[in-house]
Amino acid sequence: MTKSATQRAKESEYKDNIYVDRAKHFCRLCKEVLDHKKKSTLDNHFKSKKHKKNVQNSNNNLQRTLTVTIQQFMSDKDQINCDL
């Protein structure tokens, strides 16, 4: 028995990468509709150059955000120490 596409989307392997909207399955990073009828189609999408590039860009954006946040925190901390 094969699993339904919605069940597949909820599995740990896919849950961070796919969201379901009106019975359509979307890749969170690529923002495109995925043919979800076969697991191999989903696997091929997640192995594609386009998806891997979007993963890398997402990771870079997260890293930049964390760096800026840490810098702001350190600056605020220094200001508080000077005020004391």
From TrEMBL:
<dbReference type="InterPro" id="IPR000690">
    <property type="entry name" value="Matrin/U1-C_Znf_C2H2"/>
</dbReference>
<keyword id="KW-0539">Nucleus</keyword>
<feature type="domain" description="Matrin-type">
    <location>
        <begin position="25"/>
        <end position="57"/>
    </location>
</feature>
<dbReference type="GO" id="GO:0008270">
    <property type="term" value="F:zinc ion binding"/>
</dbReference>
<dbReference type="InterPro" id="IPR036236">
    <property type="entry name" value="Znf_C2H2_sf"/>
</dbReference>
<protein>
    <submittedName>
        <fullName>768_t:CDS:1</fullName>
    </submittedName>
</protein>
<dbReference type="GO" id="GO:0005634">
    <property type="term" value="C:nucleus"/>
</dbReference>
<keyword id="KW-0479">Metal-binding</keyword>
<dbReference type="GO" id="GO:0003676">
    <property type="term" value="F:nucleic acid binding"/>
</dbReference>
<keyword id="KW-0862">Zinc</keyword>
<keyword id="KW-0863">Zinc-finger</keyword>
